[in-house]
Every structure is written in structure tokens, then in C-alpha cells.
Amino acid sequence: MNDLTYDRFLGGRLALWQPRKGYRAGVDPVLLAATVPDGVTSVLDLGCGVGAAGLCVAARLGVAVTGLEMQEGYADLARRNAVETALPFEVVEGDLTRMPASLRARQFDHVIANPPYFRRDASVAADDPAREAAMGEGAPLEAWVTAAARRVRDRGSVTFIQRAERLPELLGLFDRFLGSVQVLPLVPRAGRDSQLVLIRGRKGGRAAFRLHAGVQIHQRAAHADDSPDYTTTIHAVLHDAAALPFP
Fold first, then answer.
1. Which residue has the higher pLDDT, 76 or 118?
2. What are the helix (H) ranges across the chain?
3. Where would I find the Methyltransferase small domain in this sequence (predicted)?
């Protein structure tokens, strides 16, 4: 990948190389990273891309993070970003459905994932092959949840970010492979339906399901100009590296 941009995250605390075209990390992986709880010592980022979520975790908590990425170009950029940021982020190239041996032998305190959002039996594929691989579902959600559940230690936790329309499927999978399932809706603006959700499960957990009040992303009721207009909570996450804990 030669046509790159150098983009800043966490209020400039983190800067990453990513392709100008194709899949580009935005707000979603930063929000996902902000949910990783204090006290963990190891984190696995499934489908890490250029390393946005995993490096945000490493920057905020200073813990060791391992990223698994299937696309060679994105894995190379993730390694470059890890070296240039001097953060404890290891990148393993491979497919989560055929987990590399180096990962099969390990378990982690917490696993995060931002799986492709769109089922291609109900949507149109992207023209760019790299963007399609990141946004269009290849491996089913069950493969993602299975991989996460196998790699997380007993009593460890797993957090995904996904479109709200996929929540029914995810609830069944998290209940099947994990436990103590919680959902935190992300609401774009007051009075709007949730478009994204954060879902967490704990390996071996037995607590009752919890559906939390939604976290609002933007302050104004409608988009008025080019300003981001984030709420105080989300601004703190995106610009001050604050946590976004499950209640």
C-alpha cells in the first residue's frame, strides 16, 4: 500500500498510517477500545486492520495487545504503526477461522472485535477489494464469537461493536458461547434509533442479561454543519483517551 494518510486519534496522542482508499478506521474502533476495562494485562484484537482499536487500548492502558489480521497490506501497516508509536502491539497475520498456531496456544484477559457489518446476502459489495474484506461479511458472526470465546481465559470478557440490526444474532451467539451478556446501545442523536451496539460477554459468566441505557454520540438533534458536535462523554473518549465503561 503506497497511497496513505497519516491520521491522528485520541486528541493527537496517537497517529496511524492507513490507506487513502479502502477501509479506513474512524470513530467505531476508538469507541470499542474505550470499553476495555482497567486491570486487564493482555488483550486480543480480532481483525485488527491497521491497528486502530488495539493501539488505542495500548495507548490508554499501557497493556500488551495482540492483533490478528487476515489482509497482508493491513497487517504490514499495523506493524509499522506499532513500531512508530512504540506501543506494545504485536501483529499476527492469519485467518480467525484457521487460527495461527502461535495464537491457538494462548489465552487473553479480554478480546475485542469489530467484525464486518454487512451480510452480503442482503447488501451490495464494495468496489474496493480491501474495503469489501473489512466491511462485507466473509466469515459468519458465529466464527468471530467462537474464536473470541476460545481465546479468552476463564472469567475473561469479550466485547464486540456491531450494527444494531445484527443484535438478535449476536445475542444468541454470546449466550451460547459466553455468559453475563450486556448490551450498550450507541444512539446517534436524541430521539433517534440506535444504529450501533456494544455487546459484552464473560466466559463462564452466569449473571442475568442487561440492556443498558444508550450512550448518545452527538449533542444536536440534527446535523447542521461540518463540526463533529460530540457529547461530553464521547468527546472525552475520542480526544482525551477516556474510558467508555459498561455501567
1. 76
2. 27-34, 52-61, 72-85, 101-104, 129-135, 141-151, 167-177, 232-240
3. 31-120
**Amino acid in position 45:** D
- Residue 236 CA, distance from chain mean position: 18
Question: How confident is the model over 190-201, as pLDDT tens digits?
Answer: 999 999 999 999
Q: Which helix (H) or strand (E) holds 90?
A: strand 89-93
For 187-216, b/e burial (b = at least 16 CB within 10 A) is beeeeeebebbbbbbbbebeeeeeeeebbb
Q: Which domains does the chain have, with CATH numbers?
A: 4-240 (3.40.50.150)
DSSP per-residue string spanning 114-170:
----B-TTSSPPPSSHHHHHHHB-SS-HHHHHHHHHHHEEEEEEEEEEEEGGGHHHH
